[in-house]
Amino acid sequence: MPPRERNYIRLTFLNEDFRNLFVDWPATARECVALLRREAGQHRDDRDLNDLVTELNARSAEFREWWADYRVAGPRQLVKTLDHPTAGRLTVDVQQLSVDTSRDQFMATLTGHDTESRAALRFLLQWSSPTDRIELSHEARNSRSD
């Protein structure tokens, strides 16, 4: 997937497979809009951010409707339930953390909410190939320098 298409909010609205992961997609999507609204308010001259908002407005009726609400939210802790095509239903705790050295970025960590969800995440890790894990680790290191 090209880097431009890896944006979480873009995937949430424009990628049907990604959208189908979320049991309560509307809540997840509205949270994305509120986070994007916060970023847009803080970075009004960011061309990439403005392009993303323009694209989502043009391609998603839900985004257009919720963008007009003017809700704003910052990073916080959430619980999300996912329907994963391989691991089944799992619930994750999502902790959104701001990065002190770069206030323009935040990081999200997902951990299993309960025993079954932790087992499902372990299964997914084992299910992926060692090459996938190396590539994911390499991408994570490289994304830190962006």
Question: Can you characterise this structure?
Answer:
With 146 residues, this protein is of the alpha+beta class. The chain is 52% helix and 21% strand. It is built from seven helices and three strands. The chain has helices spanning 8-14, 16-19, 25-42, 47-59, 61-67, 115-127, 130-143; strands at residues 77-84, 88-99, 102-112. The chain has a three-stranded antiparallel beta sheet. Strand 2 (88-99) and strand 3 (102-112) form a beta hairpin. Helix 1 (8-14) packs across helix 3 and helix 4 packs across helix 5. The longest helix has 18 residues, at 25-42. It is globular. It starts with 7 loop residues before the first helix and ends with a helix.
Compile the SSE list and pairings:
Elements: H1 8-14, H2 16-19, H3 25-42, H4 47-59, H5 61-67, E1 77-84, E2 88-99, E3 102-112, H6 115-127, H7 130-143
Antiparallel strand pairs: 1-2, 2-3
Rounded radius of gyration (Å): 16 Å
The description of the largest β-sheet is: 3 strands, antiparallel
The class by helix and strand makeup works out as alpha+beta
How would you describe the shape? globular
Number of strands: 3
Number of helices: 7
Q: How much β-strand is present in the residues?
A: 15-25%
For the biggest β-sheet, the strand order reads 1-2-3
What is the share of helical residues? Answer: 40-55%
Mean pLDDT: 83
Query: CA-to-CA gap between the ends?
Result: 17 Å
- How would you spell out the order of helices and strands? HHHHHEEEHH
List low-confidence stretches. none
